[in-house]
Design goal:
Elements lengths: L5 H10 L26 H4 L3 H8 L1 H4 L27 H7 L1 H4 L5 H11 L19 H8 L6 H14 L14
Bound molecules: heme C.
Length: 177
């Protein structure tokens, strides 16, 4: 198309009604049809643990829990339950930032950890057969206690596992002796 001559262009701009100038986001905008309900926060949505896992955890831990050791995310498959075999490990699993700071309430987090730790799930038989499940109260009691030195704490727990003869298959280069 041929460009408009300059005078015509100026006239075209002046003729544009001021109402056409749009504010973003448009405060008067209506939701798309079928989307009128306000969004429900995840902590009130009542999803199953496996759905919460995909929404809140899988971005780092990947869909099956295989992790991404190159990005410092440990493998959990067949391993994560070993934390329940060493002193302080049960607390550690609640206090890692991805868990403690998830957009989930205490009950949902307890259910999610219990789901990850199932012996027919991600943790497999790394979880001791007599492990006590987390309750919402367990999570509430420790979730908000910040952990100062996460890598140091984790390394100590891994050492304690190794002292028990546990095979450290978390995929992390730092855990290779
Ligand atoms: C931003 C990335 C990220 C997200 C999101 C995340 N994690 Fe993690 N997670 C990590 C990293 C990295 C570690 C290793 C310890 C550390 O550095 O915090 C870890 C450690 C863990 C551990 C301890 C296992 C171990 O071997 O150290 C558990 C259990 C865990 N995460 C569960 C979860 C759950 C459940 C969620 C979702 C509610 C979640 N994480 C969300 C990155 C994440």
């Amino acid at each position: 198309m041929k460009p408009l001559p300059p005078l015509l262009l100026i006239l075209a701009c002046l003729a544009t009604p001021a109402g056409h100038a749009r504010a973003f986001p448009d405060p008067g905008q209506k939701p798309a049809p079928g989307n009128e309900q306000p969004q429900v926060p995840l902590s009130q949505a009542g999803y199953r643990p496996e759905v919460n896992y995909q929404l809140q955890c899988a971005g780092c831990h990947l869909p099956q829990g295989q992790g991404a050791p190159a990005n410092d995310v440990p493998n959990m498959i067949g391993f994560v339950g070993n934390f329940l075999r060493v002193p302080g490990g049960k607390e550690f699993l609640v206090r890692v930032p991805g868990v403690a700071q998830a957009a989930l309430n205490d009950e949902q987090l307890a259910a999610l950890l219990n789901w990850i730790l199932r012996r027919d799930g991600i943790a497999g038989d790394s979880t001791p057969a007599d492990a006590q499940p987390y309750s919402a109260d367990d999570v509430a009691a420790i979730r908000h206690r910040m952990m100062d030195n996460i890598p140091g704490t984790r390394a100590g727990l891994i050492r304690a596992m190794r002292d028990q003869g546990i095979d450290i298959n978390d995929g992390m280069p730092a855990s290779t002796p």
